[in-house]
Amino acid sequence: MGDLRKAYEENRLDKRTRVYLRPRLLIVDEVGYLPLDPLAANLFIQLVSARYEKGSMILTSNKSIGEWGELMGDPVPAAAVLDRLLHHCHVVNIRGNSYRLKDKAKTGIYSTPGTQVGQFYSGAGGSNEFRR
């Protein structure tokens, strides 16, 4: 979102957004790692709306769908973006411990409380997924 924020601040958002509309598949990793401020939430909604039914997306998130209102700071824009993402979406939940910390957990250095990982796959024309 930092790239789109910079383009917004430099008054070149339309041109920069086109970069994200070109790929057949756009991957957005770790949605929800940090909360979105109102501008970032707005830019994210614009991006999802612009790609809606035009290009596929994979989104990874550690947040459940029910937590997106908190993530975006307001349940109304969260509902709008989820409406578009989930319209043609396949949801896949992946539950378990962190893969990155598996070796540390084996040695007893770190014990994971059941970290969850999630992904959306939003395909143009009807093949979308949320993987969690």
Plain-language structure description:
The protein is α/β, with parallel strands linked by helices and 132 residues long. It has one domain: 3-Layer(aba) Sandwich (Rossmann fold), CATH 3.40.50.300. It is 41% helix and 23% strand. The chain is built from six helices and five strands, in the order ααβαβααβαββ. It has helices spanning 2-9, 13-21, 38-51, 68-72, 75-86, 102-107; strands spanning 25-31, 56-61, 89-95, 116-122, 128-131. A hairpin with a 5-residue loop joins strand 4 (116-122) and strand 5 (128-131). Helix 1 (2-9) runs antiparallel to helix 2 and helix 3 packs parallel to helix 5.
Major sheet characteristics: 5 strands, mixed
> What is the H level of CATH, i.e. the homologous superfamily?
P-loop containing nucleotide triphosphate hydrolases
Order of helices and strands: HHEHEHHEHEE
Oligomer: single chain
How much of the residues is beta strand, in percent? Answer: 15-25%
Distance between the termini: 21 Å
**Secondary-structure-derived class:** alpha/beta
The CATH class: Alpha Beta
Kindly identify the CATH topology. Answer: Rossmann fold
- Low-confidence parts: 126-132
Number of strands: 5
Report the helical percentage: 40-55%
Overall structural domain count:
1
Mean pLDDT: 84
C-alpha geometry? globular
